[in-house]
Design brief:
13% strand, alpha/beta, Rossmann fold, 290 residues, 9 helices
Length: 290
């Protein structure tokens, strides 16, 4: 693993579970890690917890509600007021909700957080990522998006562009969440295409089942039992994301989905160029801040 001493990383959802393990690993490697939590109190608590594990860690808390576009804009502006460059962006925040909720922006909460949050924050930080990449051509800036290879199954997952907000029919997390995981893969590919030649690489990660994650606190029953029984620890699940964020081997790879440091085929519509471009256009249309 390459040293990232003196470089800056930002990790969303870093107050617990997988994202916190990623933030801790990057801090241990010497990066300045901006720890993003939904509230300032949660971000500061995560900083204290990570520092307990890595006493010499350089950490900064940053509040950002990824379901709220004004909060995303405010967080990006706060980061940019302190940092001219960004070298690693890990989009790991997400929700897995049993009931349908609508955000202040009028968007369904799962889509707003899991897709729009990734899209908006990444776009707002692109110039900082490009500046970080221009410092040393041998060290590209990295964007790592936590996604999933399952996404409802390799042959059945689709994004319903006529019902992105899951407003029609009955709502369930099994209906609302898989398309957002596919959406993350599509956006990873589209960002990679748009960033070719910029020395910024973008990849998605399937971490697998992760034990004791707060992501499933709203979901009970067998699903949570299976995850906590057979899932990996957050530290083990973080390995591929940290590898993509730091390793020389991953420096030239972009637009791919990974698990266990190996490239995976993309799920469902993942090979559909038109679908990824249409999702980009829909995200732009729904944005109030770009």
């Amino acid at each position: 693993m390459a040293s990232i001493n003196g470089r800056t990383a930002l990790v969303t959802g870093a107050t617990g579970g997988l994202a916190k393990a990623i933030a801790t690993a990057l801090a241990r490697e010497g990066a300045t890690v901006v720890v993003v939590g939904r509230t300032e109190a949660r971000a500061k608590e995560a900083v204290r917890n990570i520092r307990a594990a890595v006493p010499d860690a350089i950490l900064e808390p940053l509040a950002c509600d990824l379901s709220n576009q004004a909060s995303i804009l405010s967080a990006a502006e706060e980061f940019l007021s302190r940092h001219d460059e960004l070298h690693v962006l890990v989009n790991a925040a997400g929700v897995f909700r049993k009931e349908r909720h609508v955000t202040a922006d009028g968007l369904e909460l799962t889509f707003a957080t899991n897709v729009m949050g990734y899209f908006l924050l990444t776009n707002l930080l692109l110039d900082a990522l490009k500046r970080g990449a221009s410092r040393d051509q041998g060290h590209p800036s990295r964007i790592v998006n936590i996604a999933s290879k399952y996404s409802g199954g390799p042959s059945v997952t689709k994004i319903d562009f006529d019902d992105l907000q899951t407003a029609e029919g009955s709502y369930s997390y099994l209906r609302s969440t898989p398309p957002t995981m596919l959406g993350r893969v599509l956006l990873t590919q589209e960002f990679a295409e748009r960033l070719r030649g910029s020395n910024v690489v973008v990849n998605a990660v399937h971490p697998g089942l992760v034990k004791n994650t707060g992501l499933l606190q709203d979901v009970g029953g067998p699903f949570r039992w299976v995850t906590n029984t057979f899932g990996k620890t957050a530290e083990k699940a973080a390995d591929t994301a940290v590898w993509l964020a730091t390793s020389p081997e991953a420096a030239a790879v972009t637009g791919k989905l990974w698990a266990k440091r190996k490239e995976l085929p993309t799920p469902g519509m993942g090979s559909d160029t038109d679908a990824r471009k249409r999702l980009w256009e829909e995200c732009m249309r729904l944005s109030k801040i770009l």
